Amino acid sequence: MNQNTSSTRDGSTPLDDSFERYLQDKGKGRGGDGGNYRRNAARELERLAEWAAGDRGDDDWTGIVPDDVDRDPTFEDLDERVFREYARHLAGDRGLKQNTVQTYYRYISAWCGWCVNEGYLEAHYAQRASAMAPLPEDDGRKPGDQQAWTSEQRHTLTRHVDERARDAVEAYATLPADTDPLDKQRARYAALKAARDRALVFVLAYTAVRVGELLRDPNDPRRRGVRWEDLSLDDGSMDVYRKKQQWDAASLPDPVISPLRSYRQLMDPPTERWPVFPTFDHRTLATIVQDGLADQGERPDTITEQRDEYARNLLLALDEDVRPPSITTDGARSILQRLSDAAEIDIDHPKHDYLAPHGGRRGMGEVLVRAFGYTVAARYLDNSEEMVRERYSHIEAGELGDVATEALEEIDQ
What we know:
- By secondary structure, the protein is mainly alpha-helical.
- The longest helix has 26 residues, at about 180-205.
- Strands 3-4-5 form a three-stranded antiparallel sheet, with no helix packed on it. A two-stranded antiparallel sheet has the order 1-2.
- It has 17 helices and five strands.
- It has helices at about 20-25, 35-50, 80-90, 100-120, 130, 150-175, 180-205, 210-215, 255-265, 280-295, 300-310, 315-320, 330-340, 355-370, 375-380, 385-390, 395-410; strands spanning about 215, 220-225, 230, 235-240, 245-250.
- It folds into four domains: about 15-135, no CATH class; about 150-280 and about 325-355, hpI Integrase, Chain A (Orthogonal Bundle); about 280-325, no CATH class; about 365-410, no CATH class.
């Protein structure tokens, strides 16, 4: 495997130039050199690299590089058709079980998502429906096997983001009066990012709102992400576009209110139409600010001067009311991956090595079903009681097991 960890990140970068950096990020221990996930991911990336070069697959498979080009596979060769073909290659291996095919593909998909965040790729091609279509059904997973944040995991993550946000906000608020303006801006940006992450985690952890109802879906213009105008912190409610294709009010329980209120005060959005969870992606914001100021009639040289006065494009966007887009559901997954790693949360799950967004919803479902039963849980989760009973049937099975144990003990005595 190529050990090159240069900073080049464009379409001409060979695929395996990214492998070591990715594996270090995912590895455990000092230097990221250990851990089962790293070892398994390394194996699957090597498998992908060999297939992409034409060294694996059917006899007539020559790889993803055009026949008239003599070079190693690079990122410019990747698109959703390549991942679709690779999914078909895995699915066609008769030596692999259905769930194993799914697992192997997930390693590659996780790497693809990381490449988007790191600037190697423009889009998460591996997660597109057409790319995943050849994969077999993962029919070995029962509803109770899906990830659900445990109480300990929820407390660890929320405590971590709360401490990070408190420290960042305090660092910004206590800066000396003579602090350099750009340093002050950097401190505010750090506080905003930490406060946004805290608010997002608390909302996912306690509201049970689907992540697709909360954030932007690039493929559905109706799902543009919640805006401040959709929130009523005094009433404890939030309007979201539900899965059933209509707007509805979702509850904001007490633990969520304070993080949102503090975050809003720090952001001070210029209008209520600003997204609650805007993207902090540097490239996206640079384009948005450039185009937005141009639309406002600013000359190119003036725009350049304005941008030079700001440490971050987001702060200029706030001051000039150039509204950025909300983060996407993929963006939320990336944030939770970063935070799960930083909080050093112990996660034992076959699909996710981090606390995934849907796990927050399922975790709340577990809490509600156990505390108040299926009817109340169904109302909070915006699902039918029948569906909730099906998805959380493992809880009822466990409770019935306890009843049976108690009955046997009584009879035996």
